[in-house]
Inverse folding.
């Protein structure tokens, strides 16, 4: 009961401080929002098209591009608008259909459409979609021109015949078969990926920097005074650890429920998702307690805590997906608790896993928590004994 | 001050010793305090008072020696003994971001009071220390004196039999200081044993039934104020500012009954007497007959400052 009293005071003091409320709740939620808006969700490249408005065949090309999968077509009036938008990054690519396109394709001339893109792999990927549509349209127009030349029919009539025949003509299509699972499934919500990363990053950061409260309690002489009451040193250590743990779990619950309610984040199966968070919170509170036992001043605890929290977050895949790491770096990442928890949430959120699938991750986190709490308790006992 | 000597002392310390590296902070300190007795540990800063108190309160392990409270030995395995002690540290040890009431409730729980007991005791203590009106305010907004009073209040929550106060008036304004001293006097009258450390000899003289003089970690003398002053053979000093033939007057003064010693300075005579007040009329008459005009008279009775100076060769404020 006395340990609970110490823990309760810890929680009350943390929640009463406005700056800690900002960093515990508001800041992580804000980052989930910003990062989700910037990078989350299924991404469809934007392709700007400038085509002569009064040329029917040019407009037909635009419509065929609109119907193509995988690109989001935006129509512009002039070529320079398209080029400027690509330069600014407002469009991933642009296509310029020149004036006189209809005359060129129906007569003996040659129409050249220009594809505008910034250097990089994304332009090439979008280019393959655009080229496929333009090639198909060019084949249709060539067939109509041949038919018109051979039969003497007007071009538009020949084009109609070609379209009629095309429907029943034999075709060769490429059938796509997926093997394995996508790293980032298409149905992944805009905020799903970032939410678990921010959850882990901020629970760990808050726990490490929260060590300053423990140091402050010692500096104020309150810890020493607690030891003058009928309370064993072990009870004081347990109370402080419970307090840190309660704050970490509370933060986790707020972020998880807040992100689910406000941003519709899918955390996967609820029970394993919560257990994974609790295991990570336990480890983070152990790390915080150790920091509180080792650091000499509050300022030192905050500075080192922020540094370690950010470094572990970056290395452990809480800032960039582990799938983008090299094989070696991915192995190194698993020296951090974040990587294990990130793996766990990937299993739950992206692959629809259950409790059994994340038991190894939960086990590793609890083992790490036990080691850190034991080390921190030993160290705090020594500090308090002196 | 009422002194009730019980068979079992409220506190017994035997051979307390504590070393910090090469420094021996406390070296074989032993003393006892009876219920209702106020015992003062008097010594300059760094003498070892706080170290002794920390060992008695159980927040610091002694390298050697024993502490027993009401006959029960204090060891790391017997934290329940601490329930008999109220400890008031030298520095204000409270959460500044919690209110006075929240701080008291927190420590009440640590002292093992139930929720209901805690609620009623906290209310009583707030009244006792005069902070009931400000109970809801964060301690960080309290004045220095209010913080000190709350600091003492924490030590009273569980109605201990022994109250340990470590220099509770340091940095306190005169008004709060008087209030604190009056509270301690009232507690002792109520039967509580009090261990009080200070380097203000006036406080020790006002409050303490017995005083232990501590220097360099050793208890160099112990007794009532009168016993201590008698122990070192101190006398009253009469200091006179005067005009006239002072060396001749000094010769005459040496024949006055009760005057032990006379020294002459520039415009000044200093006399050492067994009882200065009793001898003063005859001294003044002697000076008048010698044609010396007295401008001022000062009577200095022996005090603990003099005792400390005599015992250690140092001032309490060194």
């Amino acid at each position: 009961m006395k340990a609970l009293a110490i823990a309760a005071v810890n929680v009350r003091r943390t929640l009463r401080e406005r700056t800690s409320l900002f960093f515990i709740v508001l800041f992580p939620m804000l980052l989930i929002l910003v990062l989700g808006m910037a990078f989350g969700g299924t991404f469809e490249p934007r392709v700007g098209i400038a085509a002569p408005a009064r040329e029917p065949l040019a407009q037909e090309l635009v419509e065929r591009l609109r119907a193509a999968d995988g690109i989001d077509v935006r129509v512009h009036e002039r070529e320079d608008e398209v080029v400027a938008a690509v330069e600014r990054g407002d469009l991933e690519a642009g296509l310029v259909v020149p004036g006189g396109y209809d005359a060129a394709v129906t007569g003996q001339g040659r129409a050249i459409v220009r594809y505008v893109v910034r250097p990089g792999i994304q332009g090439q990927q979008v280019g393959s979609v655009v080229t496929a549509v333009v090639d198909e349209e060019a084949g249709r127009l060539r067939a109509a021109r041949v038919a018109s030349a051979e039969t003497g029919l007007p071009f538009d009539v020949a084009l109609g015949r070609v379209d009629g025949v095309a429907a029943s003509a034999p075709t060769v299509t490429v059938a796509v078969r997926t093997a394995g699972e996508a790293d980032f499934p298409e149905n992944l919500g805009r905020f799903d990926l970032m939410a678990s990363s921010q959850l882990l990053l901020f629970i760990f950061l808050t726990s490490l920097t929260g060590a300053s409260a423990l140091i402050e309690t010692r500096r104020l002489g309150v810890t020493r005074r607690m030891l003058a009451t009928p309370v064993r040193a072990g009870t004081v250590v347990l109370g402080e650890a419970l307090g840190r743990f309660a704050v970490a779990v509370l933060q986790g619950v707020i972020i998880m429920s807040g992100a689910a309610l406000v941003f519709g984040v899918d955390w996967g199966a609820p029970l394993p998702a919560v257990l994974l968070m609790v295991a990570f919170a336990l480890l983070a509170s152990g790390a915080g307690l150790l920091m509180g036992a080792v650091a000499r001043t509050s300022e030192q605890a905050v500075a080192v805590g922020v540094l370690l929290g950010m470094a572990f977050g970056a290395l452990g895949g809480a800032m960039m997906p582990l799938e983008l790491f090299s094989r070696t770096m991915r192995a190194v990442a698993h020296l951090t608790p974040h990587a294990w928890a990130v793996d766990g949430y990937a299993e739950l959120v992206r692959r629809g896993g259950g409790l059994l699938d994340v038991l190894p991750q939960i086990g590793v986190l609890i083992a790490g928590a036990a080691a850190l709490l034991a080390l921190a308790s030993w160290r705090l006992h020594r500090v308090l004994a002196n | 001050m009422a002194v009730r000597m019980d068979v079992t002392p409220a506190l017994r310390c035997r051979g307390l010793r504590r070393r910090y590296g090469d420094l021996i902070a406390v070296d074989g300190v032993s003393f006892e305090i009876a219920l209702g007795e106020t015992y003062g540990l008097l010594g300059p800063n760094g003498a070892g008072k706080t170290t002794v108190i920390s060992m008695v309160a159980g927040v610091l392990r002694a390298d050697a020696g024993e502490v027993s409270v009401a006959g029960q030995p204090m060891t790391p395995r017997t934290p329940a003994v601490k329930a008999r002690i109220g400890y008031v540290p030298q520095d204000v040890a409270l959460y500044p971001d919690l209110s006075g009431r929240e701080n008291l409730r927190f420590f009440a729980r640590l002292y093992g009071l139930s929720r209901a007991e805690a609620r009623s005791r906290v209310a009583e203590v707030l009244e006792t220390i005069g902070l009931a009106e400000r109970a809801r305010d964060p301690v960080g907004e309290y004045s220095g004196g209010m913080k000190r009073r709350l600091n003492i209040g924490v030590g009273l929550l569980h109605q201990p039999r022994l109250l340990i106060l470590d220099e509770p008036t340091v940095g306190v304004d005169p008004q709060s200081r008087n209030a604190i001293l009056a509270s301690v006097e009232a507690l002792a009258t109520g039967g509580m044993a009090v261990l009080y450390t200070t380097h203000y000899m006036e406080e020790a003289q006002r409050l303490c039934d017995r005083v232990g003089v501590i220097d360099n970690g050793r208890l160099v003398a112990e007794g009532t104020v009168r016993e201590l002053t008698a122990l070192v053979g101190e006398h009253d000093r009469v200091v006179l500012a005067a005009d006239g033939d002072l060396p001749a007057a000094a010769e005459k003064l040496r024949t006055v009954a009760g005057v032990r010693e006379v020294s002459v300075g520039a415009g000044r005579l200093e006399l050492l007497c067994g009882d200065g007040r009793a001898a003063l009329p005859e001294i003044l008459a002697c000076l008048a007959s010698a044609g010396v005009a007295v401008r001022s008279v000062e009577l200095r009775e022996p005090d603990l400052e003099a005792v400390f100076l005599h015992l250690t060769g140092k001032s309490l404020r060194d």
Q: What stands out?
A: Chain B touches chain A through 29 residues (CB under 8 Å). The mean pLDDT of chain B is 86. Chain B is about 35% helix and 30% strand.
